Amino acid sequence: MQLNIIPKPNKAEFYGGEVWIKDLPVRYETNDIHPEEYYCLEIKKDEIVITSKGEKGKYYAHLSLSQLEGMGKVPLMKITDMPAFPYRGFMIDSARHMQTVDEIKRYIEAAAKYKMNIFHWHLCDDQGWRIESEKHPLLNQKGSWRECHGFGSNNMQKYGGYYTKEEIRDIVAFCKERFIDVIPEFDLPGHTTAIIATYPELSCRGDQVPVETVGGIFKNILCAGNDKVFDFCFDIIDELCELFPYPFMHIGGDEAPKARWCNCVRCQQRIKDEGLKNEEELQGWFANKIIAYLKDKGYTALAWNESLNSGIIDGDTVICDWMDRTKRCVPYANGGGKIIIEDFYHYYLDYVYGMTPLKKTYSYNPYLDGLTEEGKKNVLGVETPIWTEYIEDFDRMSYMCFPRLIAVAERGWTEGENADYASFKVRVKNQKDFLASLGITLCDESEWDPSAVIRIKETVGRLLKSITPASIMATVFPNVDEK
Q: Second label for 243, Cα 20 to 30 Å away, from 2, 131, 166, 402?
C-alpha cells in the first residue's frame, strides 16, 4: 500500500481496515532498547501509539504522522522505522551569495520535514567572510565585502555582509528545536582570499589582494610557515566554539594549490624542521595542528577528501567525499576512518537538472565500490550541498534544491532495498503545497529528468560557465607560481 510519507518508512505492517486519525488520541510509550532516532507509530481504531526511546524518536514519529493526516482515511497499521545512516546532511553556501535569516530558516524547516539532521553551513571562502568576529573585526569591515556581485553578473554594486553572532545563535536554536546539529565550515588553508585580503601578512607573499569576485581555485593560501597564521585560526575557532555547541567542525582542506608554498622560505623551512617530505605533507601537518586544537576543545574535525592526499592526516578526521580523484576514501573507510558521501556528480544541487537529473540523484548508492562490510559501517551518511556562485536569490536556490534535496533525504533514511523511485515521484508531488507554504518553489516535474539532448546542452553550458583562467592554471599547474 502506498503511504504518503517521505522518507519512505523502512517497515509497515497493515492490519486491515481504515480510520480517520485527525481526532484520535495519541499515547506515548518508552522503549530504551532502540537507538534515539527509532520510532514505532501504530494506528489503531481508537488511538495512536507512539513508541520511542526519547524526544527525538517521538519527533520523527510526528513528522510521519503529519504527512499521513493529508491522506484522509489511514490504514490500521504499525510503522517501525529508523534511519539507514546517522548523518543526513544539507549544506548551504552563504559565502558566495548570502541568504537572509528567514530564508535559511525556511530551508531548514523543509529539510527537517524530511528527517534531515545536519546543517553544514559554509560561511567563508575566497569571495566573502560571513561570521561576525569580535577578535578580528577587520574581517567584517574588509573581508565580508567584495567590489561587485561577481560571477558574471551585470550587477556592479558592492556586495557583502555577514551574520551577527546573535543571528547565528538564533539559527542554531531554531535547528536545535528540530533535532538538527549545525556544523560551521572554516576553510583552511585554501579558499582563504577573503582572509588574506584583510590580513596580507598571513599569506606567503604578503601582497595586498582584493576579495575575489569570480569562482575558481586560487593560489593565495595561508602561509604554513607563519606561526601568526595559527594564532589567527585558533582565535576564530574559539569564537566558533562559543556559537556552535555540537561535536563537529569542518576545516575545509580542498583545492589548495601549493605554488606559493613551493617558493616560500618559511614554508620550506617548516618542511625541513618538521621532517616532512613535500608540500602535500605540509598541508597534512597544517591540518593536524588545527585538528589537535579542535580535539582539545572537544570537537571532531570534518575535512574534504583532498585532505587524505598527504597520507598523514589524523585518523579521527571525518572525510567528506565530494570528488575523490586519488581514490583514497575507500581505503580510509576500510581501514577504520569515517566518511560522508556528498558526491559531486550526484548530490551537488547547484548543477542544472540536465547535468544531475532527479533519478540520477535518487538512484545513487552511497556505498562506494570496494568498501568491505567493515568499511560500509564507517560510512556515516550522506550530504547534499548547494553552492551559490550562480545562485543569487532564494527562488532560484529553491528551484535547484527541490525535489533533489528530498531525494537525498530519503536515501539517507530509507534502506537501499526499500528505495523506490517510481513511488518517490508520486509522493514528492504531494509536497508542493507544504513547500509553497514556506515560499519554496518545487521544480516542475517536466524538468526532473530531461532528455539526452537537453542533458548534453545543459551540461556543456554549465561547465563552460564555471571555467575561469585562474581555475585552469591552479588545477593544471598547482605548484607553478606565476611571477
A: 402
Catalytic-labelled residue, pool 122, 191, 250, 346: 191
The reply to whether 255 belongs to the active site is yes
**With left for phi above 0 and alpha for psi between -120 and 50, is residue 128 left, alpha or beta?**
left
pLDDT digits (tens, 9 = 90+) for 30-41: 999 999 999 999
Distance between CA atoms of 164 and 131, rounded to whole angstroms? 7
Q: Write the DSSP symbol of residue 443.
A: P
**pTM beyond 0.85:** yes
Residues 326-364: b if buried by 16+ CB within 10 A, e if exposed: eebbbebbbeebbbbbbbeebbbbbbbbbbbbbebbbeb
The SS3 of residue 146 is strand
Tell me the pairing of strands 300-304 and 248-252. parallel
Which residue among 37, 42, 81, 125 is the active-site one?
A: 125
For the stretch 415-425, what's the b/e string if a residue is b when 16 or more beta carbons lie within 10 angstroms of its beta carbon? eeebbeeeebb
Q: Which of 42, 103, 126, 255 is catalytic?
A: 255
